[in-house]
Amino acid sequence: MESNSRRQLVAGNWKMNGDKALVDKVQKQFAAATLNNMDVVICPPFPYLGLFDGKVKLGSQNISQFESGAHTGEVSVAMLKEFNCQYVIVGHSERRADNNESSSLVALKVEQVLNAYLTPILCVGEPEDVRDDGTLFDYIAAQLDTVLLKVGISQFADIVLAYEPIWAIGTGKTASPAQAQEVHAFIRGHLAKQDNNIAANIVILYGGSVKGNNAQELFSQADVDGGLIGGASLNPEDFLSICQAANQ
Fold first, then answer.
1. Residues forming the active site
2. Which residues does the record give as substrate binding sites (predicted)?
């Protein structure tokens, strides 16, 4: 595989949590931090996107597959761009489950984000029963292939991937560093069948109960390039310690 120029990235997904006070705390925490070797992205609920001052990069937790129109409750890529949003989480397991988002819909959303020159954080991952029955690689390959068919391998140069074992999200269970590395290596290898260089350079985040005390070991794995952080991103000190682990 060709040499890579991957840079560590840590994205905090607040989900349906947070308030104005948390926005202030996070901004103060990161204004004082020196993190030169990695990128930090905060993905707050929509109403808080306009409150950030530009010290951290911003991401959205979701996007409409439509450009505009009669879609009550939806938000477009053009609106996000007006608030300096650079990243969009697409296909998070909670949206796939709670909102019945199919891989085909996820692929349409990825296409919208790419067309707006924003960066999709495309989430893939398996539930516990799929891991237990040994079909997790087929399951993840199918999630990736639906997007590959829609946008093509060349567009993956502008995508960040996030591997989230669904059984480890918010459960306190974490994939071991070896388990995380095994799946990250599979994902990179799957993309390499179509383009070695894109596979070598794509950033693949791990998401699933990452905390300050396990981040360094997870991030030191060869194919793990940072994290998509849920609960710990709501505590500015914990989140900063995770970012510092990536910065090293």
1. 92, 164
2. 13-15, 170, 209, 230-231
